[in-house]
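Re: that backbone. Tokens:
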């Protein structure tokens, strides 16, 4: 009799275990069906769907991992969308920035070719066409520089370089242009040697872009360039007395395609300062800007000293 009772209790126990397992299996099955539905929804493009689960659920760990993957994919998708929008904006901007001066250049050349202008006026047209061609060349050069940086194809060759001597050499090439544009200039560069690990072509582009930015966009008539040695770094300052940069524009001046003056044509490609920032970062440096509108604007490039 006692053995029958034990068997009966054991049978009840096994039935309870079986019922528990069946309930758990059905629960997991429902959870898997829910996961399948949510994944199908995500596959259709709804990147905001998430799996809801409890800590005790058998599928909790896999749900957490799926949610994490979806979150990462969402971030990548948003980045992709932003990149796609940026490239569309870039193509629109470039088509306008190239088409407008190119149309103007063709107009001048057609006038010369068709002998609409003669004598001194023809010479003036030739000079204007020549200047526009050089402007286009500079724009294309800047565009290719930015594209190489953006695609990580830019190869840097760093070598120990006297930044004072290199800066003087770069600035000397700008003096005729500065005088032609009516700028007064003041260059404060020590005669002593100061060595940094530089890609000389990249540093030349940095300083050229900053000086060109002053000439083209500042509406000022004075420029200062100064090289200052600090404890463990070197600061290259380029300042002007022009119209300055408004407080709302300051955080964006290094953004690709950003234009403080929304009415600018090819002169406002919005790539120059963006290139400067990327080249400075490649040198393990940083760039800062300070501006008081209609008084002073200072760009500071901070680079580490050579070890």
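Recovered sequence:
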């Amino acid at each position: 009799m006692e053995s029958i009772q034990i068997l009966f209790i054991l049978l009840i126990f096994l039935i309870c275990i079986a019922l528990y397992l069946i309930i758990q299996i059905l629960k997991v099955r429902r959870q898997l069906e829910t996961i399948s539905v949510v994944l199908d929804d995500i596959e259709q493009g709804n990147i905001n769907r998430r799996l809801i689960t409890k800590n005790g659920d058998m599928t909790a760990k896999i749900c957490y991992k799926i949610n994490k993957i979806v979150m990462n994919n969402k971030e990548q998708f948003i980045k992709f969308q932003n990149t796609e929008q940026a490239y569309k904006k870039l193509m629109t901007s470039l088509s306008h920035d190239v088409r407008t001066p190119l149309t103007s250049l063709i107009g001048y050349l057609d006038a010369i070719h068709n002998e609409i202008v003669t004598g001194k006026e023809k010479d003036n047209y030739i000079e204007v066409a020549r200047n526009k061609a050089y402007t286009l060349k500079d724009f294309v050069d800047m565009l290719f520089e930015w594209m190489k940086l953006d695609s990580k194809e830019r190869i840097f060759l760093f070598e120990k370089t006297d930044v004072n001597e290199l800066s003087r050499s770069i600035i000397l090439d700008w003096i005729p242009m500065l005088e032609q544009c009516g700028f007064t200039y003041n260059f404060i560069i020590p005669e002593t040697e100061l060595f940094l690990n530089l890609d000389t072509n990249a540093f030349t582009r940095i300083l050229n872009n900053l000086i060109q930015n002053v000439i083209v966009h500042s509406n000022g008539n004075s420029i200062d360039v100064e090289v200052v040695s600090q404890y463990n770094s070197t600061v290259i300052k380029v300042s002007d007395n022009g119209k300055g940069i408004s407080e709302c524009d300051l955080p964006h001046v290094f953004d690709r395609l950003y234009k403080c003056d929304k009415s600018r044509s090819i002169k406002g490609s919005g790539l120059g300062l963006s290139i400067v920032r990327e080249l400075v970062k490649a040198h393990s440096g940083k760039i800062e800007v300070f501006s008081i509108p209609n008084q002073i604007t200072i760009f500071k490039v901070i680079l580490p000293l050579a070890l």
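DSSP finds six helices and seven strands in the chain. Helices lie at 2-43, 60-113, 119-150, 163-180, 200-217, 272-282.
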